[in-house]
Fold:
Amino acid sequence: MSTSLQSYEFGSPTRRNVFLAILLCIGLAYTGRLVQLQIIEGSDYRLISETQAIKQLVVEPVRGSMYDRNGKLIVNNSPSFSVQITPKDFREESLPALEHLLGLTEKEIRSRMAKAPSRFVSTKILRDADFSIIAAIEENRAMFPGVNIVAESKRIYNFQGNSAHLLGYTKEINERQLQTRGDYYRQGDIIGATGLEASYENFLRGQKGVEFAAVNSIGQRVAQFNDGKNDITAEDGFDLQLGVDIGLQDYIEELMKPYKGGAVVAIDPSNGELLAFVSKPDYDLRMFSGKTPSNLYAALLHDSTKPMFNRAALTRYPPGSTWKMLMAIAALQEGIITDKTIINCPGSFTFGGRTWACHGTHGATDVRKAIHASCNVFFYHMGLKLGIEKFEYYGRMFGFGMLTGLDLVENQESKGLLPSLTYFNKVYPHGWPKGALVNLGIGQGEIGVTPLQMAVYTATIANRGTHIQPHAVRAIYNKKLGKLQPIEYESTKLPLNPGIWDVIIQGMYDVVNTPGGTARNARVDSLTVCGKTGTAQNPHGQDHSWFVCFAPRENPKIAICVMLENAGFGGTHAAPLAQKVMTKYFFPDRLKDADKDHQNGQNQQQAPTDAVHAASQEDYLAD
Structure:
């Protein structure tokens, strides 16, 4: 019975074995497939199941660095992280937790999200986030869908001072700039705002990259798409090599601290490179690096000392007696005088019923003596004889009344004011006072210059008539080509008689180095300094102190303009400061002795000798 039943169920033992073998194969096949799906290829299929979309992630480039003339790294970057939101993936229920975590209000978060170009594009809502914020978001991904962390960098400064008006700062791009600066920028991007950061923005910023990533249903990245084959690599910004000596720059900033305000500009006459570019008061660039307080800009803008005002390139003050070399050059070139021409100085000058004073009675005065003694009467005559049209012509020849071409963005430099016939006819439609030319002869009246213009003017005299465009950047390191590329700047030889320069430079040498000169405080042992003081009248307070100089006479390596607001006599304040700058530049080992000399000088100012008092009075009356 049992045998017949077995035969009925399977037909035969062979048939049963075949059936069991088939079952075993099917079981092995299913088991193998499960192993393949869950163990061997499990991660791949899990990725496919989790992936909801392919997202483009912007990769920020590293902003280019800056080096000084000695190869010192002065501006570079450190890592920073920002929080960004993709509006499409963000959930409203996450908002309270995000507010608490970021320290932002709901209104601030919504406002920043609204600035995203589309719901599918991420926008930054917090820059330079603390590590605690980054960690909290990463650990609680499910709570913050659409919230991502992006790696960036922020500026760091490797020097003691500020250099604010030269280097400039970076900031988050605003809506107006987004509309005018093309397709490169997005909301939340950093852009150069002032100084070299702004003028070299296109070189410093680099080129963004793009990374394609697979993201899950909450916008969280789960894998790289196509092994990164479609990614676009970010290109870091180019580096700038400056002509600036950052040690000299820092030192001048220290020297300027006792003064209410002013500027110092130093140029290498041989090539037009800025050695220093200082404006005081200023501000700390470090405040604009990374997370910036919302009220910072407004606070600086409304500061009564005007720290954001670039006094080196935006002021417009009369140059005083520093203008007298230009008047002498013009008169010599026009044949109004020769180096032998004598003009008598009786101590005053009368014209049109008005009398202008000189600081003393210089008697028979030639042009060299006029520069040396800063004789006003001599230059009153020059102003009248030259006339307004020639005055403007020679002023423009030396770059006054126009931009210098310094490699800062245009709105950070003033043209100053160089009066012309058209200007006077407009200001005085019923006839302008001819006595205006008398004032112009000594650098007073309707004339305004910047310390930058005066430094370029002084460098041109040092070069005996070769005008070189001033600039801060000497070369750009091209990271694509892997080489340093020097920048060429304009150089012009002024159409002037070469013999003029011996007369002018000798007069400036006498100002510093011979008795009766108004800048004896600018002398430096073992260095032939040529200079000229100026004290510009200020109707709103104490006069402004000027001094321009270059050294050494034989082969000039530095040309300097010092302008100190409301400081008084040029020979008493601006000239000694320039003397310390030159000592730092040429003989840094002497600084300790120079500090002692400076302290002695301060004591002498408190109880001046007759000689010092006479020099101060001479400078004041001359200007």
Summary: Confidence is low (pLDDT under 50) at residues 1-7, 47-51, 605-622.
